[in-house]
């Protein structure tokens, strides 16, 4: 089980060092280095196929890079499996919603608390006093913190598979927050949402990042440039597995290679004229 970091705001929490990832002869990541600092929202953008999701999969352990290193709080996590990285405090949502449709909202979120459970199998089966008290604590956290934050009290007992897509996205976010992560990887959390849902999700991300009770460092992969530029502290731009720039939103928006990657040569020439 992870212990909250004693790093100060602004210290490097997660670092990628010269990470290379290949699929056959295709280079998905070509020597990517990145420093994510405690307390920030660090976004990753780029056209489809740029390597964004591959990079997230390397961070949470679904992929093992052929070259390079990944450090969390100064310690290498290269050899750790995904569940071990989760125990360290790295949580994840996915590009496509990954929820258990036949289970209720509350039960889906409860699954994210598994690394915090201390009672053994025997106590769990017999539901002895310590186990009962432990469950009360975890239930209070879920109900008073997560369900309240995400405004899903009205659907807590409904099967997730019966809910609209936007609410399913909230449930998946809730399950990730149940882990009480230090780093939260959000892979296209706004994809498929309408305008109102986008505004709600952006607000939830800011709350999780800024509110004292959470203070979660976020890595955001997203195509909605308006939201990215509004809420991010730093933005990394990838194109065909290569890093174009890693800077502030202002620096990224004015970078000619970023404009070229999104608009193409002809449109870039037109904007310069």
For the report, how would you describe the main beta sheet? Answer: 6 strands, mixed
Task: Going across the biggest sheet, name each strand in turn.
Answer: 6-7-8-3-9-10
Low-confidence stretches: 120-127, 266-273
The CATH fourth-level homologous superfamily of the largest domain: P-loop containing nucleotide triphosphate hydrolases
Instruction: Kindly report how far apart the N and C termini lie.
Output: 57 Å
**Helix and strand element order:** EEEHEEHEHHHHEHEHEEHHH
- If you consult CATH, what is the topology of the largest domain? Rossmann fold
Specify the number of helices: 11
Average pLDDT over all residues: 87
Strand content: 15-25%
Structural class: alpha/beta
CATH class of the largest domain: Alpha Beta
Query: What is the number of E strands?
Result: 10
Shape: globular
Helix content: 25-40%
Query: In total, how many domains does the architecture comprise?
Result: 2
CATH hierarchy: architecture of the largest domain = 3-Layer(aba) Sandwich
* Cα Rg: 20 Å
What are the salient characteristics of this protein?
single chain; 273 residues; alpha/beta; Rossmann fold; six-stranded mixed sheet; four-stranded antiparallel sheet; 11 helices; 39% helix; globular; disordered C terminus
How is this structure best described in words?
- By secondary structure, this protein is of the alpha/beta class.
- It folds into 2 domains: 12-89 and 181-272, P-loop containing nucleotide triphosphate hydrolases (Rossmann fold, 3-Layer(aba) Sandwich); 105-180, no CATH class.
- 39% of the residues lie in helices and 23% in strands.
- The chain contains 11 helices and 10 strands.
- The strands form 2 sheets. Strands 6-7-8-3-9-10 form a 6-stranded mixed beta sheet, sandwiched between helices. A 4-stranded antiparallel beta sheet has the order 2-1-4-5, covered by helices on one side.
- A hairpin with a 2-residue loop joins strand 9 and strand 10.
- The radius of gyration is 20 Å and the shape is globular.
- The model is unreliable at 120-127 and 266-273 (pLDDT under 50).
